[in-house]
Write a structure and sequence with these properties.
alpha/beta; 12 strands
Amino acid sequence: MVCTLDKSKVSTIKKALKALGKKNFVFIMHNGSFPAAEGENTGFGTINSDGGKKFIDYAAGLFDAIQMGPAGKTKSTDSSPYTGTIFSNNPLFVDLKELTTDKWHSILSKETYNTIVSENPNKNTNKTAYSYIVKKQALALSEAYNNFIKTSDKKLMAEFDAYKIENDSWLDKDSLYEALTIEHDNDYWPNWKNSVDKNLFNPKTIEEKIEYGKRLDEISKKYEKEIDEYKFIQFVLSKQNAETKKYADSKGIKMIADRQVAFSDRDSWAYQSLFLDGWCLGCPPDYFSKDGQAWGFPVMDPEKMYNSDGTLGEGGILMKNLFKKMFKENPGGVRIDHIVGLIDPWVYKSGKKPMPECGAGRLYSSPEHPELGKYAIAKMEDLDLSMTSDKEKRVKTLSDEQIKLYGRLIEKIVIAAAKEEGLTKDAIVCEDLGTLTNPVAAVMKKYELLGMRLTQFTVPTEPDDPYRCKNITKKCWAMIGTHDNQPVTKWAKSLINTHEGYLHVKNLVEDLFKEENDKDSIIVKMTNDAEFLRETKLVELFACDAENIQIFFTDYFQMNDTYNTPGTAGDKNWSLRLPDNFEKMIPINLPQILKKAIIARGSKFAQENKKLIEELDEIQ
């Protein structure tokens, strides 16, 4: 759309967004989904590429920011960005083409680069080729490193040395893990046969500390080159990321990062002494999963997070350093995935089901639990033990002091990190979808955190459902769907001529066509017309009171493919990309949608914006 609209027309759209009270209009697309420029499709997207910058140009003027997915290094066997490393960035985000230029002294040959592009098995589709590019990217970056260390560019070498020193707190451990994956021919450390290697940073005795130190020196010397190569790749990424940020800033686009609740295998190995032994993070049994969700992620030990005097312990310092890095690199803010997992996490015993009868519970809300009770902030007298249908709401009373204890990670780590990097707490986007425990809701309210309202999650039989248009408040982020939802085009088609579809349509008509006399005719039409339902769902997004709007790339470009289906595995997940020829795609008709959103606010509001409506009509 932006490519075909001149500045005055984009200005009209921005005026309409402002009239509707929208402060931020943000595009969501994970890094791997970025398109490639012609002849540059290696099998994986990156915003650092020419294709990425081409999309920044496209988004400039209309969108305020681009929300990316988690940026961590993923496993060779798992492309999910939500299991990536907390510090190291994903090597797949390196733009290989740039390494073939004079800027990097052509440390990657054009022949190698062109071969990767020509042999990409998905070069003619809008899908990543994950298994292919993981191997090819590693070989290409190894070639680049070998040539880099032969260059005589003293300035670049000095930059690399400074980078290694500045980031040694995490870079040394991450690169050492890389060496051990070579040593054991396996990047999953629980499968390593050497128990010393499993516990290099988790000695229990003085003798073990001495023994592990010797092993550390041995591995560091044996794999000195491979360790330095890992650090070099992170160095390249840091430079490319900084340059891309500068380019985006020049176009008025900010970057919003995504912090997953998980820790990667690499992180759980490096910091295992900080985790609660024998416990994992998951989700309790609910409507969607009768046995709960066993994620298998480690849980920070509360006693390592904070000292007895309330100051940050070793674990708390680690977490704060993580968020400081994220806010520094992403001045647009940070989206925190599963905020419940930071404030009131559900934990279960390793090897058991995440069910209460198997010993699972809320880490800070289980005063009656024989093992978790010592961490409880809620006391027995705060619980309503008579509740059977909604046990997640059983914490009924909390003092201000208790709310502060539940929120100390938010206050002392997340908000503090944002402030130290010059940002406000409005730069924190909280994924709070689903059932919130009362402690989480209390913390969100106390610290005025901005949560999410996902309109596709509306339960149409509940008049007070928080995701319904009429109930969405100003201080939040609203969107139709996230990376885990069907695109709105597919969602609408699935509901045509169904009872559930009728219920959704009835609510939409009540909320958006309040002054229409013949609502029944509109209901009948929308119940049978997928295009009308899709468009109205988009109108709802902009007509609601939310000040901040996000839209996922599949919804904006009217795509039919789903990016990720929770609870399933396979190459289909996380592989969808924006097609390389995306400029030729037909995006949503934003002027038409905004016009209808203004009209949906009522005749008085529409009359006040009559001229704006006419301007929007002209640019459809």
